[in-house]
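From the pipeline queue, job 12 of 40. The input is one protein chain; the requested action is below.

Action: predict structure.
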Amino acid sequence: MSRVHEAIGFVIVIGFGALFLWGIGSFIVRREPNQWFWRLLAFLQVTLIVQLIAGTTLLILGYRRVLLHYFYGSLFPAVVLVIAHVLARGMDDEKDTWKVFAVAAFFLFGLTLRALTTGLGMA
């Protein structure tokens, strides 16, 4: 189970990194990202929930990590995503909502990378 949790962690970090780079690229070429941007975002949000379930299962089974691992891997990303959804919903121009999630992806990349490194004992 811990190998699955680790593999999912790598997928999440790479995914948020890709989402951020996609947003930067879209900003540079001044074009909205296509539907795959939103599909990737949805996939990553669902994957975070799956990761939380896997991590909670590991915790119940007795696998322990440093306290920061739990904050970087669950609490902080949840806060960033809630803020991003609130900000995106309140935008005047709906076409610009992707920019909020591109910036959020930058923070989510950093947070989940830190969760991965603390989980792997590299803290």
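Job complete. The CA atoms of residues 5 and 53 lie 9 Å apart.
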